[in-house]
Amino acid sequence: MIKPAVKCLVIFAAVLLITGCSVAERLDTVEEDQVEIVDEFIFMVQCSETSKRVKGAVVSFCGETAITGLEGMARFENIEAGRYIVEIAAEGFLEYSFDNVVVIATQKLSRVSLQPTKKYSIIYHFTSAASQIWMPVPVYWDGYGTIDLDAVVINPEPNSLYTDEHGNLIAYFYNGSGANMKYSLEFVIEVSKIKHDLAGYATDYDQSSEIYLLYTAPERYTQSDDPRIISLAEEITAGAADPVEKAKLIAGWVRSNIVPGDAPYGWLPDAISVLQYKKGHCGAYANMFVALSRAVGIPARNVSVFHNPFGDDFESGKHSKTFYGHIIAEFYLENYGWVQVETSMNRVGVVPYDLIILSKGNTFTLEKSNFGKKHLWFHLPERGTNGQVEDTQMEVERLY
């Protein structure tokens, strides 16, 4: 009989049967306290789109009941991204079946994420008399967090809709009347919480690649080439063998050394100011992580999101103002992809709440703008002159 495990984050540690690597060996690198291996399960997945079945992973997990609320990581061979039915079997137990599970294949590797998903209908709207408005528009981002996105409607029709160098979709509006105009963005999005399996991962970077050159470069507010940033980054990561270990050390330093709260540098927490005052909000944590990572050759960038700071899910209903805005970060691994980091919580490869990704990068090109670029993040509408952004609301309907 499976006994309830200690209270802890639900964790899966999965291995290919052919590797011979034990579950205990793979859990050695898990940093969460008091992880208890409850039992080992055979996973059988069947793609509901193609009916293809795949078997061959052993999974261990912990949780309050060890049966409900399953989410985490598993490894399979020859499996494709798609929606799957998951069956779990263990000796002495009946099979448990879980529908609505999404498998996301990573770049060139067999790691997949098996997580229940949630689907939301979102209407984001505001009014403004500003002559110019730039608004980030959600796009599909590589399967981490964002599972599916459709039914995107922008009203009124933007004067321009363009994609910048980071892959962000930006709507531009011009209002020459001087009167208040209502803007709205509607979309249906399917999301999952994020958990990467990074145990034992090591890599060398192709330092001539576009990603490496773009996301290790210093920027105006992310001064990764400053001697103070470089010295600190090298000190923090001394002895670390690979980018994952370095990222964990950097995230730990950031969370331990920056105090939450307002700081004298205002709303643009450039890395040098954050280092000087060691104080700030979510953007300060994220940008400091990015600067330190870039300083030791790890591609990294900020990620601007909406989430619910009062819970793990979005609540149905109308929500006023902008309390959903938040900044996290991510770093890149060669032949794997981008790994998200909740820098405010010191969670590397783990984001334990639903999120809507609005933009990625540390510099955003705002076309037809007399002030050029917006730096560090872009999740709320940016206005031009003559008018504020007002009456901001997000209407949420949970579809499943």
Describe what this molecule looks like in 3D:
The protein has 400 residues and is mainly beta. The chain folds into three domains: 11-116, no CATH class; 119-193 and 379-398, Immunoglobulin-like, CATH 2.60.40; 196-364, Roll (C8orf32 fold), CATH 3.10.620.30. The chain has helices at 23-27, 210-215, 227-236, 243-257, 271-277, 282-295; strands spanning 11-16, 40-47, 53-62, 72-75, 82-89, 96-105, 111-116, 118-128, 132-137, 146-155, 160-163, 169-174, 181-191, 194-195, 259-260, 279-280, 300-307, 317-320, 325-333, 337-342, 347-348, 350-351, 355-360, 363-365, 373-375, 382-383, 389-398. The strands form seven sheets. It has a seven-stranded antiparallel sheet with strand order 1-3-2-5-6-7-4. Strands 10-13-8-27-18 form a five-stranded antiparallel sheet, with no helix packed on it. It starts with 10 loop residues before the first strand and ends with a strand. The relative contact order is 0.15.
What summary fits the major beta sheet? 7 strands, antiparallel
Mean pLDDT over the residues: 77
Q: What's the CATH first level of the largest domain?
A: Alpha Beta
Shape: globular
| CATH level 3 topology of the largest domain | C8orf32 fold
Total of helices? 6
**N→C terminal distance:** 32 Å
Compute the CA-based radius of gyration: 22 Å
Unreliable sequence segments? 1-42, 56-78, 89-96, 104-113
